[in-house]
């Protein structure tokens, strides 16, 4: 009987110790998981970049007395500016496109002459060999200059800017028509800010041929 009771006590002690070990393991596992979660949260917080403040160029003009702004006068100023810039960008786009077309025409003409020098050298006499040597070099130089100057791309940029000022001019014109008819327009200052931000941040500086 004593031996049976001892065995029972030993078995009870073993069960108690095993339960303690299991609970201890659970506590350690949960604490490790909590620690990992905390570390993950720290990493996520570190990885999230801080929001950058908008640059000064992207900020609207803050007006303290918008009720004192004369909408008709402001629209008139915008109209004159749009007309001037639209004319400048349009003329620049036409000039660049015409110059690029001239170079293309010269290259085509020189290539035609080159073909005649090869297939009909009698027309050029003793100069046929000289032309056959000089004309390819001249054509390559003209094509290289054309690619270097990129007049076609510059003309596309100038045309896009001219279209922007043309659209802005229409907005201004329709608002002026409403005011002349007795309407009250409340978004004149907003239109001014939008045009200012677009011109400052999206419209490139003047495009020069060289």
Cα radius of gyration in angstroms: 40 Å
- Summing up helix and strand content along with how strands pair, one would put the structural category as mainly alpha
Distance between the termini: 112 Å
Main beta sheet strand tally, sense and closure: none
Features:
210 residues; mainly alpha; 5 helices; elongated; disordered N terminus
Overview of this structure, please?
By secondary structure, the protein is mainly alpha-helical. The protein has five helices and no strands. The termini are far apart. The chain is 77% helix and 0% strand.
Question: Which secondary structure elements does this structure contain, and how are they paired or packed?
Answer:
Blueprint: H1 2-47, H2 71-119, H3 128-149, H4 151-180, H5 188-201
